[in-house]
Structure prediction request, 306 residues.
Amino acid sequence: MLIMLTGATGTLGRAAVPALLRAGHEIRALSREDQARRDVTWVRGDLATGYGVREAVAGCDAVAHLAALDRATAGDLLSRPGTAPGALTVDATGTRALVAAAREAGVAHLLHVSAVGAGRAGPLRRRSEAERLVRESGVAFTVLRTTHLHQRLDRVLRGLAGSPVLPVDRTLPWQPVDTSEVAGRLTGLLAGGPRRTVIEYGGPQVLATPELVATWLTARRLRRLCPPLRYPGKVAAAQRAGALTTDATPTGRITWHDYLNPPPMPSEDFAEEHTASPTSPANQPERDPDRHVYGGDEGYQRPTRG
Prediction:
């Protein structure tokens, strides 16, 4: 299946592209800049202005719209209290251009990645507007809402760690999910065809901000003063009320702790130490008195020792 991706170079897109390629799909992606990856067909364009969108979508079987998710998530609440997820997003204008191109090209499935909590407050309503455009497009669709991404929260906290003080709102719940698992979920949804509904997908556990931050600091071997601070704004209020978490199943399996503390990978030295060398007796059948190679005589049975 030929799938056109927006946001292919973003946080989720970098996980989605290899997942889709492993599933045997062809990928065409929209990008404002030249890209080095050669197993993807890149089309120069800009979703915000509509430039190149029609050319990118033409002839595709499905479209996966990931761009908005990377540009703003609830992690912005940590980096800029009062700033809502969606404030920097490719809003309804970009989605409108994509929907029009998908309808014109006769695309069979439009998968739109949104955020849990879309429509609840402030700029989150722009997510709801984008979802509405997808639902009313006339194109068979699936809307996949996700909770916060591990990788995005990690990047936000890295930025905040430059200060010796990291204020936390102890009343906010977080349900982070890994991009690899979101990529797997959307790959399955694309393979299964349009659902014509909204599906939510979150991480395996809900954490309060102190635990989220403390786990991160421990994993990164950092110490920071974490005074309590109540984040202002309607989006923070919605998150405080649980609107940005979900009880939908299935969930991801990778916890925040496991993401931050991945198991060690075997080193090249380990592999060399545990691999028989070409001169090892294990690779020299002629030196094994109980083993011999006979030229293609499949009927031969090796005699047993007396």
About this structure: Confidence is low (pLDDT under 50) at residues 70-75, 79-89, 276-306. The chain has one domain: 2-260. The longest strand covers residues 109-115. Strands lie at 2-6, 26-31, 41-44, 62-65, 109-115, 141-146, 173-174, 198-201, 207-208.
